[in-house]
């Protein structure tokens, strides 16, 4: 599944999420960056699990601005 993350600090979010694993969910940056959105490949088909894992990783970096996470 693909996961799209939107933030005003997109490069920081890419660095934080790329190749990270949280609760068994792994994120890999796809190289696609559009506006404030970055796309990642995710190793699960469970929407809520992927969203929760992404938010935990990003929230561990308190300097990031507000963001949204969407699943495709």
Instruction: From the alpha carbons, calculate the radius of gyration and give it in angstroms.
Output: 11 Å
Structural class: alpha+beta
First-last Cα distance? 6 Å
Q: Based on DSSP secondary structure assignment, what is the total number of beta strands?
A: 5
| Overall spatial form | globular
Question: Ranges with pLDDT <50 over ≥5 residues?
Answer: none
Provide a count of the helices: 2
**What do the pLDDT scores average to?**
85
Please state roughly what percent of the residues sit in beta strands, choosing from under 5%, 5-15%, 15-25%, 25-35%, 35-45% or over 45%: 35-45%
Helix content: 25-40%
User: What can be said about the biggest beta sheet?
Assistant: 5 strands, antiparallel
What is the spatial order of strands in the main beta sheet?
2-3-4-1-5
H/E element order: EHEEEHE
Can you give me a brief rundown of this structure?
This protein is an alpha+beta fold. Helix content is 29%, strand content 42%.
From the structure above, extract its key features:
globular, 72 residues, alpha+beta, single chain
């Amino acid at each position: 599944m693909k996961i799209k993350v939107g933030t005003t600090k997109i490069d920081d979010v890419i660095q934080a999420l790329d190749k990270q694993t949280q609760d068994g969910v792994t994120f890999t940056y796809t190289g696609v960056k559009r506006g404030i959105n970055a796309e990642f490949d995710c190793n699960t088909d469970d929407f809520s699990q992927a969203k929760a894992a992404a938010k935990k990783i990003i929230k561990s970096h308190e300097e990031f601005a507000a963001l949204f996470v969407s699943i495709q």
